[in-house]
Inverse folding.
């Protein structure tokens, strides 16, 4: 039986068209009505180095990159060497031979090999750059990627570059097709037959966060480039000015967050994007944002740390920093995203919460989602609730830090008559004037902390996956949720009693919900991609649960199989 | 910043004082500068409701508390960056930063070149007392090596920086200097700065009798020399020469050194918005459609 949940990995040297091949396959699959989840790794070097792009596609929703690949396409010898230990009986391997830069050893028993002379064919066409098109042509035949759809995608892309370039690429594509047609198909992988395209867009996590910012209504964005967050700024820089908003590339992250503070005080809805090292630099100003009650949103696309660590690799290790990273006692709201759809929705949510509670909000994305493109239902901007800060109604005396029933004090934009006030990082009384009496500091701390308490009641995007009592409950966060979802489904299908718990509000912690969940589970397992088990730490300190941490930190995400194995081990 | 575009008001300089009592030591030069600020605001007719005064941390950074305006008292070194955001978000308002030499050129030194080069439309008044006042007397980037301070008990190992030279070379479009003993001149130069469209920088020497025992008011009085009447303020080369006491018999210039008209950052951003934007059909839905597979 053909397998329709298909994982295709292409790999080779950066610059050989690996990324564009992956993008083409992903777009073609989406146009053919399939769901898509892509996963890429590329080197920190600008040119060259090993690059990999994996497309997982299925008629049903896919929520992670998968365990490993079914189909592998090697553009060069290095790619082949790097991946050959992952070949299993049944794997289909398309590789550049003869005429490529390597002589593959005999393929292991049961591996289906398809030697395609990609380099040679491209050379014969006097167009070395269309090597990837030869590969695409071969893949389309071998794995039923609809040819017409692929060609459309190619035309859309290359059409802009002129007819000559398009023709050359289509020619290479046809050559690749012919080469594959001449071969006997021996493996069982096949993309499901095309259906009507769904109402989806295909977008990366970073672009989606930028889109979320725009839907959420930002009018000011300032950031400093830092992998893997930079595309958020790139996306916003393309669109925000066209909508009349202001975009700045700051001189550093300290300046970026400082500018947000000034702009937000001045009345704008503001956002920045960064990664761990940048978030560290922002820490001092985040303390002031809490103290002066100024809404700011920071999208932190986590990468491997500490220090410059693993600059292009996946990790979920900024939770400590996000929750407690500043001096003094400072209330903080921290959200995390599960997938690309969340990158849109939760960014809107982050902006809403920042505005509503006049507090800094940090949204944690991660290196895996940053570049992962996924098909998501086309967002309808009018379906989002957009919250703006409570503004002064002009009645009575204006007090910026007025003590109110809900602890939220109305803001007044500069320029408003009769509302001149100071925003300050010094402890202050209701009018903003410095006030350092012991009573006042306690009172104001209580105001600021109580102010964000309702977040856990009003806003608890925590999902419980599975019902009844379980032997193992798996709690996880960020993009690991997608991996755990699949692991839980597989385990349940095998008759195991397993449940999942997926918080997206990381702080303040919805403690009751954690505990309620834990009551129904004999053991709690917490997989996360960091060394110390950061979420486990907070579960231990904030709840009565004693979790079993399961951490990895090799720069790659978990696979569902890893979680399945671990759960079986602890059951 | 140019306050010319603002709603002009007629207020006496006393009316710009807030109710917050001034906390500086007696004899501190900052008092004189503050008087200059009040007078400049009154002379320029600035509407307090339309003014955002922003500061960092330091004795000098207390200034916003004493002025009628919208205001932010931010973090050590960050006033300029905060002000940049405020100005860009509200180009219809005026922004003034007040702060010290430590604040501006030590911890905040990374922001200074960028406000100047980007020509952010704001006024930066720097209270230059060659010392960290608020932290009780450590040497600052403008301290002379002769000074024995809290952290330089044997004198300093470093040469001081020259703020004027920096601001001129960073590209500030209005650069002036005065000293606290001349509040009238301070007022005049600050008023000029407020009325200038672009990044205006006014360096003002300010004695700190509590901690800087060598840069006394008398010392500054002897140090400064008025810029010749016939100085051409559009001549950057000449302004740079004047800014260097080494080439002026050890004298520091007092007055307006340089002034240039150049589009401001917000104007240039507005130009971009007008160039690429303004399409009625460009909206979020259209952006979303661009991600169709
Ligand atoms: C991050 C940080 N580091 C250090 C300080 C301590 N600090 C406060 S004011 C100051 C120096 C102020 O000197 P200056 O800016 O020259 O102003 P003055 O007090 O002399 O007017 C320092 C070092 C601080 N508040 N924050
Ligand atoms: S310490 Fe110095 S700078 Fe601060 S108020 Fe006193 S005299 Fe002025």
């Amino acid at each position: 039986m053909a397998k329709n949940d298909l994982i295709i990995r292409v790999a080779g040297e950066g610059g050989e068209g690996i990324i564009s091949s992956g993008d083409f396959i992903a777009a073609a699959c989406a146009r053919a009505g399939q769901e898509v989840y892509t996963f890429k790794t590329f080197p920190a070097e600008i040119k060259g180095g090993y690059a990999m792009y994996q497309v997982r596609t299925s008629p049903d929703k896919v929520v992670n990159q998968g365990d490993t690949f079914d189909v592998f396409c090697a553009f060069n010898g290095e790619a082949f060497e790097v991946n050959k230990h992952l070949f299993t009986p049944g794997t289909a391997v398309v590789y550049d031979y003869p005429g490529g830069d390597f002589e593959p050893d005999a393929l292991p028993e049961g591996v289906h090999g398809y030697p395609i002379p990609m380099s040679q064919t491209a050379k014969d066409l006097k167009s070395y750059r269309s090597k990837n098109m030869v590969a695409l042509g071969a893949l389309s035949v071998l794995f039923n990627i609809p040819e017409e759809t692929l060609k459309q995608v190619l035309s859309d892309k290359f059409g802009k570059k002129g007819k000559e370039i398009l023709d050359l690429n289509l020619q290479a594509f046809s050559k690749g097709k012919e080469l594959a047609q001449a071969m006997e198909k021996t493996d069982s992988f096949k993309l499901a037959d095309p259906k009507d395209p769904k109402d989806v867009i295909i977008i990366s996590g970073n672009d989606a966060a930028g889109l979320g910012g725009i839907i959420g209504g930002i009018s000011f964005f300032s950031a400093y480039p830092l992998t893997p967050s930079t595309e958020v700024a790139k996306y916003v820089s393309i669109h925000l000015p066209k909508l009349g908003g202001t975009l700045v590339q700051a001189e550093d992250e300290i300046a970026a967050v400082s500018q947000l503070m000034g702009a937000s005080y001045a009345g704008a809805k503001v956002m920045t994007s960064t990664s761990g090292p940048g978030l560290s630099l922002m820490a001092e100003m985040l303390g002031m944002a809490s103290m002066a009650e100024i809404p700011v949103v920071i999208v932190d696309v986590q990468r491997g740390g500490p220090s410059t660590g693993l600059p292009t690799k996946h990790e979920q290790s900024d939770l400590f920093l996000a929750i407690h990273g500043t001096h003094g006692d400072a209330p903080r709201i921290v959200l995390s995203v599960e997938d690309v759809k969340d990158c849109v929705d939760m960014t809107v949510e982050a902006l809403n919460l920042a505005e509503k509670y006049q507090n800094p909000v940090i949204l944690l994305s991660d290196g895996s989602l940053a570049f992962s493109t996924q098909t998501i239902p086309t967002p309808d901007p009018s379906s989002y609730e957009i919250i703006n800060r409570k503004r002064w109604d002009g009645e009575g005396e204006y007090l910026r830090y007025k003590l109110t029933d809900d602890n939220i004090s109305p803001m007044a934009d500069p320029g408003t008559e009769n509302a001149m006030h100071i925003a300050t990082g010094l402890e202050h009384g209701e009018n903003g004037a410095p006030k350092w009496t012991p009573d006042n500091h306690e009172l104001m701390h209580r105001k600021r902390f109580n102010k964000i308490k309702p977040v856990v009641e009003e806003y608890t995007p925590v999902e419980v996956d599975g019902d009844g009592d379980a032997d193992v409950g798996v709690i996880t966060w960020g993009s690991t949720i997608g991996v755990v979802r699949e692991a839980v489904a597989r385990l349940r299908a095998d008759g195991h009693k397993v449940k999942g718990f997926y918080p997206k509000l990381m702080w303040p912690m919805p403690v009751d919900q954690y505990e309620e969940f834990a009551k129904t589970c004999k053991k709690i397992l917490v997989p996360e991609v960091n060394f110390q088990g950061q979420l486990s730490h907070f579960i231990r300190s904030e709840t009565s649960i004693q979790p079993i941490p399961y951490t990895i930190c090799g720069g790659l995400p978990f696979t569902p199989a890893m979680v399945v194995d671990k759960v079986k081990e602890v059951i | 910043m140019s306050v010319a575009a603002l709603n002009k008001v007629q207020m006496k300089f006393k009316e710009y004082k807030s109710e917050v009592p001034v906390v500086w030591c007696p004899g501190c030069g900052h008092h004189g500068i503050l008087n200059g600020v009040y007078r400049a605001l009154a002379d320029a007719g600035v509407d307090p409701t339309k003014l955002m005064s922003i500061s960092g941390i330091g004795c000098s950074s207390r200034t916003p508390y004493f002025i009628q305006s919208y205001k932010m008292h931010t973090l050590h070194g960050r006033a300029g960056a905060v002000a940049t955001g405020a100005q860009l978000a509200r180009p219809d308002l005026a922004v003034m930063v007040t702060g010290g030499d430590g604040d501006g050129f030590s911890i905040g030194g990374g922001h200074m070149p960028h406000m100047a080069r980007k020509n952010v439309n704001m006024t930066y008044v720097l209270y230059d007392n060659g010392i960290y006042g608020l932290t009780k007397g450590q040497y600052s980037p403008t301290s002379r090596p002769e000074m024995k301070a809290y952290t330089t008990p044997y004198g300093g190992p470093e040469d001081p920086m020259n703020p004027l030279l920096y601001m001129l070379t960073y590209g500030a479009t209005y650069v002036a200097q005065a000293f606290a003993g001349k509040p009238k001149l301070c007022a005049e130069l600050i008023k000029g700065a407020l009325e200038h469209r672009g990044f205006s920088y006014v360096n003002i020497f300010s004695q700190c009798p509590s901690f800087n025992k060598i840069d006394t008011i008398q010392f500054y009085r002897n140090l400064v020399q008025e810029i010749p009447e016939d100085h051409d303020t559009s001549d950057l080369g000449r302004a740079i020469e004047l800014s260097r006491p080494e080439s002026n018999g050890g004298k520091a210039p007092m007055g307006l050194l340089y002034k240039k008209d150049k589009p401001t950052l917000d104007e240039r951003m507005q130009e971009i918005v007008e160039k690429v934007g303004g399409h009625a059909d460009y909206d979020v839905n259209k952006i979303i459609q661009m991600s169709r597979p």
Summary: The mean pLDDT of chain A is 94.
